[in-house]
Design brief:
It is built from 40 helices and 31 strands. With about 1050 residues, it is α/β, with parallel strands linked by helices. InterPro entries: CSTF2_hinge, CSTF_C, CSTF_C_sf, Indigdn_synthA-like, Nucleotide-bd_a/b_plait_sf, PfkB_dom, PsuG, RBD_domain_sf.
Length: about 1050
């Protein structure tokens, strides 16, 4: 047992956290009397753990209870009582204790947990690979770091662990592959070996361990020493005449390997092949479809591109990390959204604090307002940040008053990152050159800034040439600025750019004919621009065309300062001449020259230069964003072209999938890109869980595939049903991303209709949650589900005929016209229809008189909706809308109500027997009865109180006379010549009362329940709704405890539904 005294152990501490910062965090639990961060005695670097002594045991207990698993700097720290120290205080000599602990005989390893049974068609190696692929890179790095620490500190114990669990060896090596930490030459050796006829697999000569826990056999090796990791294995001699394989040919051979060949390889090389196939998109290898050489070549090039794009990010994700791209920027780049890079030298060396913070916020807002995603770039604590958060920008800009903030060009990046590795927490603002390097590494093509550096006057003798110019000659990023300052040598600057192969043009900005290259503060410089650019679309076309050539040089587009903010050329020339004279007299040169001259220009112009500077920066950011938007449009044509309006996804979709031979369920509903914003206060001790309105709030963002239709479909898919999601996306980056996501989850895209972007955009949903994960505000755009091109009856008739489902599920996001077409097509084909209302507003659509969907004559047995799953609020809205539409006044409705056999007196007592007083007082069971003639099966979701099933039973149903069903038979019809048998009503309590602390998210809980319910109805032959509801409720509980809109663990319930 761990001691319960005043001391605690803190582990998994981020290496860039100081003792002061850790102490500040711990002090939130109580007074800390002593703390020591453990360090390596040789290097002095932290080891990632330490000990703390609190003033009393209550404070220590509070730290263990509240700070364990607390996330800071991307890692979750571990706070617990020290297991190897029974004293009630922090050890006085940590180093001696550590050494002594190293000599203590380690206890034997505890019994390892049993393995998991795998489905017959899934190999254990593939199961491990699939699991690892779901983990974020940071978590994989943590696992590798912990394993490395164990190997270094206790090789014998590590060897014993790997012997007992060979599957761990496999998982560790797969992690190394996924993080790009293994020698890529192994791949070439594998291909060479497999091409030799009759070659003996190396694995035949390796000793094997008997598999345990259902995992693959793995060779047993002694624990490796650190030196073994530093050198690649000796290479086999290669015939001199063997030609080198191109990357494309190498990939082609890997793709064409059959599974038997891969299985015969040694584990190391087999793992390399498996990882590469996953990186390139194993989805198309499994289709076994034939394609022509053009298609194959195009796909191979796309795969090579994918590997190249993520190569740097993976290499940079290893510890220590010097390069971090924000999740927002990563997501935007992946989805093809316009991203604009912004430098930070303008804030750290151009504007004082806090004006620089206001300017940074303003410029980022300009990017967002004009349709782009800002990526502010700077160095914070030795780490290059692409896409800085508001808090990071404040930290960087505020530090100019506390420490020396570097002005960073290309040459400085290694220095500041290296010194940061050595313990110096340095900050820096990136110049144009530094920003270009980092933007290019992140994949950003557009960079908007103020002014460009240039050749200084007298540069032909002094060789004083800005690094911005040489960077433009070797980095393919387009820089949009207002030209170079007019105290520089503009003609020689343009000549230098020409020599570097940099294309230069100036925006006409409403002018005709030839225009001057701007001189920063002034629109004219006296030097004509090499090229004139009419508008943003023309600029984007130039960038797009240049990207198609194998060029590594950038482009510079000059945008003149707004006319109303410029300082006339004549006036500015006089001011500049005086400022340069003052610099010469003071002997100011090199990198200090420009700041000195700019400061003197500010003084001599009485601040007009500052006003012009701010105006031109704003103008350049707006112009740059508009160019990025136009470029994003052009780059859409690089993506696979999707045929408009087709039922099956053409070209790409058909290549990925063929139509399934038989479908259990068609789910017609929304498919959307979901963005979740969870308020994340800086300190967990902040009492108010609500974000502050009217300002920026710290948050954690997560994006996923969403939409009610998708959630229901994915839940049914996980529960083992054959599902086709029928929805619509636009031919835009979000739409393509959603299609790829569906395929990765193993779902077909054959039911997705692709619409032109001129008709609609892909559905989007944004939710803002408070610190408790409760919804504060949501915004959505589902207008695509109202497009007139989807109103064709033939569209839905052919969809249902192609798949022959047992059920059709429709969510309430469709327009009334399209909803009506879907239901009509289903009923014409004899398919039952289930309806998910989605929201109170959308619930009213099908019950309003104007929609003409549910009408007085559409009562049992001519009803349109067979099953509905509203919550209690939606049920109330359904009832109110039906009442307002006079549906309860029709003769046909009265006829069915009369045949139900409900007593004219004492009905409340009967409701109380079947449900409870609270529900009866709310009128829930009464309203389901009144809606029953139109919807004969209603499942009302009651949150933590379970759900209420109300069902109309037809005449002759065996349940009417079954004693086991007697407690739930609310009434029996006494009519002889009728198909109405009675009413079944049953209250199902919640499967489990989940404590509030365990509730992760309520999003998708009801969708999960409906999806599993539908899967149960088609998989459990002869099952009734009431037989499946308990399983569906348990599935909902799983999602309640999950970060996902549908918990992947729902698949664990699949076996309970399998009775085919």
């Amino acid at each position: 047992m761990a001691s319960k005294g005043r001391s605690v152990f803190i582990g998994n501490i981020p290496f860039n956290l100081t003792e002061e910062e850790i102490l500040h965090l711990l002090s939130q639990a109580g007074t800390v009397t002593k703390f020591r961060l453990m360090t390596n005695p040789e290097t002095g670097k932290p080891k990632g753990f330490g000990f703390a002594d609190f003033a009393d045991a209550d404070a220590a207990a509070s730290a263990v209870r509240n700070l364990n698993d607390f996330e800071i700097n991307g890692r979750r720290i571990r706070v617990d009582y020290p297991h190897n120290n029974e004293k009630d205080s922090v050890p006085t000599d940590y180093q001696q204790q550590e050494a002594a602990m190293g000599q203590v005989q380690q206890a034997p390893l505890p019994p390892l947990p049993p393995g998991t049974e795998l489905p017959p068609n899934l190999r254990s190696g593939d199961a491990i690979s699939q699991t690892l692929n779901t983990l974020p890179p940071q978590q994989l790095l943590d696992v590798l770091t912990q394993m490395k620490q164990l190997v270094m500190s206790d090789p014998a114990r590590a060897t014993e662990l790997l012997k007992q669990a060979p599957q761990l060896s496999y998982a560790i090596f797969q992690s190394l592959i996924l993080m790009n930490l293994v020698d890529p030459q192994v791949l070439a050796k594998v291909v060479e070996q497999t091409s030799r006829a009759g070659a003996t697999p190396l694995s035949q000569h390796q000793p094997q361990v008997q598999p345990q826990y259902g995992y693959p056999q793995m060779p047993v090796h002694a624990a490796p020493t650190p030196q073994q990791y530093q050198a690649p294995p000796p290479q086999m001699s290669q015939p001199q005449s063997a030609p080198a394989l191109s990357q494309e040919e190498l990939l082609r051979q890997v793709m064409q390997m059959d599974q038997a060949t891969i299985d015969s390889l040694p584990p190391t090389e087999r793992g390399q092949i498996m990882a590469l196939r996953q990186q390139l998109g194993e989805f198309y290898l499994d289709t076994q479809l034939e394609c022509n050489e053009l298609e194959y070549g195009l796909l191979t090039k796309i795969c090579i591109s994918r590997v190249a794009v993520y190569s740097f990010a993976r290499n940079s994700s290893t510890k220590p990390s010097f390069f971090k791209v924000s999740e927002e920027v990563q997501d935007a780049l992946a989805r093809g959204k316009p991203v604009v890079a912004l430098e930070t030298t303008i804030y750290t060396h151009g504007w004082p604090y806090p004006e620089n913070v206001a300017l940074a916020s303003h410029l980022e807002s300009l990017v967002r307002v004009h349709g782009g995603i800002p990526a502010t770039i700077g160095i914070l604590n030795g780490v290059a940040k692409v896409g800085m958060t508001p808090e990071e920008i404040i930290e960087l800009t505020a530090s100019i008053d506390k420490q020396k903030v570097w002005k960073l060009s290309r040459r400085d990046l290694g220095f500041i990152a290296g010194l940061g590795l050595n313990g110096e927490r340095l900050n820096g603002g990136t110049t144009i050159a530094g920003t270009m390097v980092l933007a290019h590494l992140a994949g950003i093509k557009i960079f908007a800034t103020g002014g460009l550096g240039g050749v200084h006057r007298g540069g032909e003798s002094s060789m004083d040439v800005s690094a911005d110019l040489t960077e433009l000659g070797r980095t393919p990023v387009t820089v949009i600025s207002s030209g170079c300052k007019s105290f520089l040598d503009i003609p020689r600057t343009l000549e230098y750019l020409e020599t570097q192969g940099v294309g230069v043009g100036t925006f006409a900005d409403g002018r005709e004919g030839a225009v001057d290259f701007p001189a920063f503060f002034s629109r004219d410089s006296g030097t004509k621009s090499p090229k004139v650019i009419k508008n943003e679309a023309e600029a984007a076309a130039i960038i797009y065309a240049q990207s198609k050539f194998p060029l590594q040089s950038g482009l510079h587009f000059a945008n003149p300062v707004p006319e109303n903010a410029q300082v006339p050329k004549v006036e500015m020339d006089t001011i500049i001449a005086k400022a340069i004279q003052m610099a010469d007299e003071a002997g100011i040169g090199g990198s200090d020259n420009t700041p000195f001259v700019l400061n003197k220009i500010k003084e001599l112009s009485n601040g007009k230069s500052v006003q012009a500077n701010k105006a031109l920066v704003e103008s350049n950011v707006i112009r740059g964003t508009k160019v990025a938007v136009e470029l994003a449009k052009l780059e859409l044509q690089d993506e696979p072209i999707l045929e408009r309006g087709s039922i099956a996804v053409s070209k790409v979709g058909e290549f990925h999938h063929s139509l399934p031979p038989k479908t259990d369920i068609i789910i017609a509903g929304s498919l959307a890109s979901d963005l979740m914003c969870d308020y994340a206060p800086f300190s967990h001790s902040e009492l108010d869980p609500q974000p502050v309105m009217g300002t920026s709030n710290p948050a954690r963002f997560g994006s996923s595939i969403g939409g009610v239709g998708h959630n229901v479909a994915y839940a049914a898919h996980l529960a083992g049903a054959s599902v086709v999601l029928s929805s619509a996306v636009a031919n835009d980056p979000s739409g393509r991303s959603l299609l790829t996501g569906l395929e990765r989850n193993g779902m077909t895209t054959s039911g997705i209709t692709i619409l032109d972007t001129s008709e609609a955009s892909t559905a989007q949903y944004v939710a803002v949650n408070d610190a408790r994960k409760d919804l504060v505000l949501a915004m959505s755009d589902f207008s695509i589900l109202s497009c007139s091109s989807l109103e064709s009856v033939e569209h839905w008739t052919s969809m249902i005929a192609a798949h022959e489902p047992e059920w059709v599920v429709v969510d309430g996001n469709w327009s009334p016209a399209i909803f009506s077409r879907i239901v009509s097509a289903a009923k014409a084909a004899g398919k039952p229809v289930a309806w998910e209302p989605v929201s109170t507003h959308k619930t009213t659509r099908i019950l309003q008189q104007a929609s003409r969907i549910i009408r007085p004559e559409t009562v049992w047995p001519h009803h349109l909706i067979d099953l509905a799953s509203p919550n209690a609020v939606e049920l109330d809205t359904m009832w109110a809308t039906a009442s307002k539409s006079l549906l309860f006044e029709s003769e046909s409705w009265w006829h069915i109500i009369d045949q139900l056999g409900l007593p004219s007196a004492g009905a409340r007592d009967r409701f109380l027997q079947v449900t409870d007083a609270h529900l009866v007082d709310q009128g829930v069971p009464q309203r389901t009865i009144q809606l029953l003639p139109f919807i004969p099966c209603i499942i009302t979701k009651l949150g933590p109180n379970g759900c209420l099933l109300t069902q109309l039973l037809k005449h002759g149903d065996a349940r009417l006379t079954d004693p086991d069903y007697a407690p739930y038979i609310l009434s029996r019809s006494t009519y002889q010549n009728t198909n109405v048998g009675g009413v079944y009503m049953r209250l199902f309590p919640s499967a489990e009362v989940v404590p509030e602390a365990e509730v992760i998210s309520v999003n998708g809980v009801g969708d999960t329940m409906l999806g599993v319910l539908m899967a149960g109805l088609v998989r459990k032959k002869g099952a009734h709704v009431e037989d499946v509801i308990p399983i569906a409720q348990r599935a909902a509980i799983k999602t309640l405890r999950s970060n996902d809109s549908v918990s992947r663990s729902v698949r664990d319930l699949s076996v309970e539904l399998d009775s085919r």
